Amino acid sequence: MDKITFLEFEAIMSQDVISDNTSIEAEFCIDGLSMYDEACLGKKMRNNANTDVYWFGLVPDGSQAYDFDCFEEFINANVFSGRSLKEIWNSISFFYIHTYKNI
Q: Cα–Cα distance between 9 and 1 in angstroms, integer?
């Protein structure tokens, strides 16, 4: 598992997924919170629209799935037991971060 700086994460998430016809997906865990051992996040083009969507899939059963229209909302949403991604950043460990071409 890897740690990256918030600035590195911000740079990854600033990629233009619409023009590049790509998506970004990452799997991560939060140190000390076993309920988030297989959490995912990403950025993609919204279906049938020319806009970005930032998303979380925090638990395998899909009960904690969230979509956001902009990066600021995404990083500041209190989706981690009342805390935001930005607040818990130092506890995030990544299994992988992939950028892939949409088919």
A: 15
Q: How far apart are CA 96 and CA 98, in angstroms?
A: 6
Structural domain contains residue 1? no
Could you give the number of structural domains in the chain? 1
Token pair belonging to 92? 């995030």
pLDDT tens, 70-79?
999 999 999 9
| 33 within a domain of the structure (yes/no) | yes
Count of Cβ atoms closer than 10 Å to residue 101 Cβ: 8
Region of 49 (left: φ > 0; alpha: ψ -120 to 50; beta: rest) is beta
- Structural domain for 43, as ranges: 6-101
Predicted TM-score (pTM) of the model is 0.91
